[in-house]
Specification:
This protein has about 350 residues and is mainly alpha-helical. The chain contains 16 helices and 3 strands.
């Protein structure tokens, strides 16, 4: 999640520095932490420093989990402080490489849109949708692709283009009480200059609904995460700290307990559940940072919470047709997702 808090409420420079220090302590999470740091630098107005962080990530010896996302963010940032030619070159390169992740497509398309390149933005949104949402696929699109469809709908509305199949799908997925057609009506910009209080209030209400939907897409609530140990890690953990065997009688029991715990939480109405996967070296480092022993079972839920806070949680339950969270390679519905 990228921060969107106004600078007057947060010291973005200090927060960026804190995140850089944290990235040094947790190298395995450096990519996510440094991207957040760069976002804070952008919000502080120090766009050259943000670019330096993006370059630092792109030049790292270790491979990035999502290099296309980093390049897209760099391009958007560069364009905002006068490096249009370099930004355009990066954007064209991304369109050519066609990443299989919706986030880079969304970022570069919105960057084009914000600089009044509406036709190119519409083409970019469409390219991303064509790649990630093949025609004829009747399954509901993944939530990460929804903003791509909404952005495409918005730009096409501004260009005066008629609805097509994907615009209709965007309307179907949109849950705000204010319809997409109303939110994306080009005439809305004229109402902001109206002297009629009723029209202005109506426009403020629409804008608030749009902002709320956008923030909801960017920032889900903090997940309630359950700790999962793969079989080799659990074996190593119990070999090093035998007292934890009371927590984990066997690996099969451990997996069954995870599923039953999550189902119980879900049935009680707890939202946004997730699973974090532990490793023994990471757990030992966490215990050392807490000044405690890894043999202390009370550390286990704290460790899970820390992993979730660092963005390591995977949503539960998996989407229909997705692999099971336990790592067997079987479909969730045929593995731990089976019902009694």
């Amino acid at each position: 999640m990228r921060p969107d808090t106004p600078a007057e409420n947060v010291d973005h420079t200090a927060e960026a520095a804190r995140l850089e220090r944290t990235a040094g302590l947790y190298p395995e999470d450096a990519e996510a932490l440094l991207l957040r740091a760069a976002a804070h630098l952008e919000l502080s107005g120090d766009r050259p420093a943000a670019t330096a962080l993006y370059d630092r990530l792109l030049s790292a010896d270790d491979g990035l989990e999502n290099p296309a996302l980093v390049r897209a963010l760099k391009a958007s940032n560069l364009w905002e402080y006068g490096h249009e030619a370099e930004a355009r070159a990066i954007i064209e390169g991304l369109r050519t490489t066609a990443p299989r992740d919706p986030a880079p497509w969304l970022i570069i398309a919105e960057s084009l849109e914000s600089h009044d390149e509406l036709e190119t933005a519409e083409k970019t949104f469409t390219e991303g949708a064509s790649l990630l949402l093949p025609e004829g696929d009747d399954t509901e699109p993944a939530p990460a692709t929804h903003p791509l469809l909404y952005g495409r709908h918005r730009v096409r509305r501004m260009l005066g283009q008629p609805h097509d199949t994907w615009d209709t799908l965007a309307d179907t997925l949109h849950t705000s009480p204010v319809s997409l057609d109303e939110l994306h009506d080009p005439k809305r910009v004229w109402s902001l200059g109206s002297e009629n209080p009723t029209e202005l209030q109506a426009e403020i209400t629409r804008l608030q609904a749009e902002l709320g939907a956008y923030r909801e897409a960017l920032s889900r609530p903090f997940p309630v995460a359950v700790l999962h140990w793969p079989a080799p890690e659990l074996s190593e953990l119990l070999s090093a700290y035998p007292t934890l065997s009371s927590e984990y009688p066997s690996h099969d029991t451990h997996l069954a307990t995870i599923e039953s715990s999550l189902r119980e939480l879900s049935s009680s109405g707890t939202p946004n559940l997730g699973i974090v996967t532990g490793t023994v070296p990471s757990y030992e480092a966490f215990a050392a940072s807490e000044g405690s022993s890894p043999a202390d079972a009370a550390l286990l839920p704290q460790y899970a919470t820390t992993l979730a806070a660092r963005g390591r949680a995977v949503a539960w339950p998996p989407q229909r047709g997705a692999g099971c969270w336990c790592g067997t390679g079987r479909v969730y519905g045929d593995c731990h997702g089976t019902t009694a």
